[in-house]
Amino acid sequence: MNRWQTGLQFIGIGWYISLTILGGILLGKWLDAKFGTEPLLLILGLFLGLFIAFYGAYRMMPRPSDKTK
Questions:
Q1: pLDDT tens, position by position, 31-53
Q2: TM segments (predicted)?
Q3: CA-based Rg of the chain, rounded to a whole angstrom?
């Protein structure tokens, strides 16, 4: 993989992290407004977004190639 592909892959991972965290926050905020449970579901949405974001980013990270062979 060349340098541009690697850089674009990391930019994509950054967007993925930010959008999943924001999505969790917005979902929690919307559910809080619907059920009147402020701020419980907002906090749960934040943690759910963080978990999904970093698990997904871990799965998307390029693996180091074994160049010793």
A1: 999 999 999 999 999 999 999 99
A2: 7-28, 40-58
A3: 17
